[in-house]
Amino acid sequence: MCLAIPGKGLAIDASGPLRQGRVAFGAISKEVCLEYVPEAVVGDYVIVHVGFAIARLDEEQAARTLAAFAELGELEESSS
Fold first, then answer.
1. Of 1, 8, 41, 67, which alpha carbon lies 20 to 30 A from 59's?
2. Beta-carbon count within 10 A of 22 CB
3. 7-27 residue pLDDT tens
């Protein structure tokens, strides 16, 4: 089974051939492709599947999903 995980956009780089961004997932951040969500800006929450942001979502939806992952023990909490 594949999951799509919500993350918060930290930075966007549109200088290359594909729009990329750094997205935080709890204590971990990763580079992801933002081509499918051209409207996403820094601070937005996006759903990421296999390295591609596939949709934006609001902060409340992201918080509910992240809380469910944390409850299941599937999310590392940020130490800050």
1. 1
2. 16
3. 999 999 999 999 999 999 878
Among left, alpha and beta (phi > 0; psi -120 to 50; other), residue 50 is left
Contact 45, 7 (CB under 8 A): yes
Statement: the pTM of the whole predicted model exceeds 0.85: no
In 1-80, which ranges are E strands?
5-13, 20-25, 28-33, 45-49, 52-57
Amino acid at 73: G
In angstroms, the CA 41 to CA 37 distance is 9
Q: Are 12 and 19 in contact (CB under 8 A)?
A: yes
Tokens found for residue 22: 């750094």
